[in-house]
Design a protein that fits this description.
Helix content is 33%, strand content 22%. It is α/β, with parallel strands linked by helices and 454 residues long. It folds into 3 domains: 126 residues, 3-Layer(aba) Sandwich (Rossmann fold), CATH 3.40.50.12160; 231 residues, Alpha-Beta Horseshoe (pyruvate-formate lyase- activating enzyme), CATH 3.80.30.20; 65 residues, Beta Barrel (OB fold (Dihydrolipoamide Acetyltransferase, E2P)), CATH 2.40.50. The strands form 5 sheets. The protein has a 5-stranded parallel beta sheet, sandwiched between helices. Strands 14-15-16-18-17 form a 5-stranded mixed β-barrel. The chain has a 3-stranded parallel beta sheet with strand order 6-9-10. A hairpin with a 2-residue loop joins strand 14 and strand 15. Helix 8 runs parallel beside helix 9. The longest helix is centred in the last third of the chain and has 24 residues. It is globular. The N and C termini lie far apart (55 Å). The site of iron/sulfur cluster has 9 residues, from helix 7.
Length: 454
């Protein structure tokens, strides 16, 4: 632990921090909260590691590859060298990897100055000051609503943890039991973001469909969406929900997704599999017939519905027939977007102890085959938008072959997940909504021409 006046030797201004996130949208939200706390307490943010006094890496440990990516990110950032040991950036590793591996990490990663599990991230200011050898800060955390988002869409966490204990998943052990955020806190955060210019709120959590079940009263996700619709509507914004589970699709929720204007008719249900014995061994319920009937009902009741799912390939005991059943099911339902994960035996999970673990070659082969189906479905779903006109939220500007182009997304494209709309000509600012005619498509991407500014 450094005890020197690290900052004073290096620069006389405010301490600088760099924040790096590995993993999902939920981690982005946690990083944003730490960013807000650090900026509020006087830190300045940099995106250059060699300008940073402290580098904070918020890690993911959902799968072995995510843990590996987290550790590699930390190690590559730790290589930033300055002339002397005192001047090197201090490294803080936060989030799921410290939550999962605890005390095992320190001897393995001497490059890291502090480890901060997910449930201690609100103490980030004191920890950052401590590793920099600065006096402790007494800046209170202040508000439960702290965001710094500047883009057109913002993730909002409505819960943390999970009670489902799917046998392949380490998340319940890492993030703890399901805990809904209070509705008032979520609404305050949404209001703050909308006032700050955000146009789309993306609600996330490990299991959004059971929001409210652990809170006093009778409130559920459908009720929450109606409450948030009141907040978002005056700004002309959109609300999207990710990470629902099949059991969470109540009649009331279906009605809200169909009828409540700012809530998008976009449903993300990670089914993982459809073969009954695989689902049972995964600790999940249902069967192919039940899932098919659920999605048929959703398509019937919600016109223009967009469906996203996740398939987990190669679970122990998955036979070739089971895998083919999964492929058939995915094609038959005709999901618009499918994420494909290869099963990995995670430390501490029940599935890692099961017999009949697949060999690497089968795993790779099946993952690729489902990935091919996912692409075929996703590309076709994107291409059928050509010729139609949609509202597009502008997310930013990107370099393209012919110069700069605007990048945005429509209601049927979840930000960061489902591709984007590329607009070659036109002027607009981040957060503007423009009407665009779709004139071309490539892979998951659409090319649009502005027809009207709103
Ligand atoms: S629902 Fe299952 S896969 Fe998703 S976080 Fe919970 S335990 Fe993991």
């Amino acid at each position: 632990m450094p005890t020197t006046t690290h900052i004073d030797d290096r620069r006389m201004g405010m301490p600088t921090c760099m924040l790096v996130t590995v993993g999902c949208a939920k981690n982005e939200v946690d990083t944003d909260r730490m960013r807000a706390l650090l900026l509020k307490s006087g830190f300045e943010e940099t995106t250059e590691p060699d300008h940073a006094d402290v580098i904070i890496v918020n890690t993911c440990s959902f799968l072995g590859v995510a843990t590996q990516e987290s550790v590699e990110t930390v190690l590559s950032l730790a290589q930033v060298s300055t002339d002397d040991e005192d001047g090197r950036p201090r490294i803080i590793m936060c989030g799921c990897v410290p939550s999962r591996y605890g005390d095992e990490l320190a001897p393995e990663l001497p490059e890291v100055d502090a480890f901060v599990p997910s449930d201690q991230e609100d103490g980030i200011v004191s920890i950052a000051r401590e590793v920099l050898g600065l006096e402790a800060s007494h800046t209170p955390c202040g508000s439960s609503v702290l965001r710094t988002v500047e883009g057109a869409s913002a993730y909002v966490k409505i819960s943390d943890g999970c009670d489902r204990w799917c046998t392949f998943c380490a998340i319940p052990a890492i993030r703890g039991p399901y805990a809904s955020r209070p509705a008032a806190e979520i609404a305050d955060e949404v209001r703050l973001l909308m006032k700050g210019g955000v146009r789309e709120i993306v609600l996330v959590g490990q299991d959004t469909g059971v929001w409210g079940s652990d809170l006093p009263g009778e409130h559920d996700l459908a009720w929450l969406l109606e409450e948030l619709a009141e907040v978002v509507s005056p700004y002309g914004g959109w609300i999207r929900v990710l990470y629902l589970q099949p059991e969470g699709m109540t009649d009331r929720l279906v009605r809200v997704l169909r009828d409540v204007e700012p809530v998008l008719p976009y449903i993300d249900i990670p089914v993982q599999h459809c073969a009954a014995h695989v689902l049972r061994d995964m600790g999940r319920s249902g069967s192919r017939a039940e899932l098919e009937s659920l999605f048929a009902r959703l398509r019937e009741e919600i016109p223009d519905l967009v469906l996203r799912t996740t398939g987990l390939v190669g679970f122990p005991g998955e036979t070739e027939d089971d895998f083919e059943e999964l492929c058939e099911f995915i094609e038959e339902v005709g999901f618009d977007y499918v994420s494909v994960f290869a099963y990995s035996a995670e430390d501490g999970t029940v599935a890692a102890t099961l017999p009949k673990q697949l060999d690497e070659a089968d795993l790779t082969d099946r993952t690729q085959r489902l990935q091919d189906i996912a692409e075929r479905l996703g590309f076709a779903s994107t291409a059928r938008r050509i010729g139609n006109e949609y509202d597009v939220i502008i997310d930013g500007v990107e370099e393209a072959e012919g110069g700069l182009e605007l990048i945005g997304h429509t209601w049927f494209q979840a930000p960061d997940c489902d591709g984007a709309v590329h607009i070659e000509a036109g002027e607009a600012a981040v957060g503007d909504v423009v009407s665009c005619k779709m004139v071309d498509a490539f892979c998951y991407e659409l090319v649009g021409v502005v027809t009207a500014q709103q």
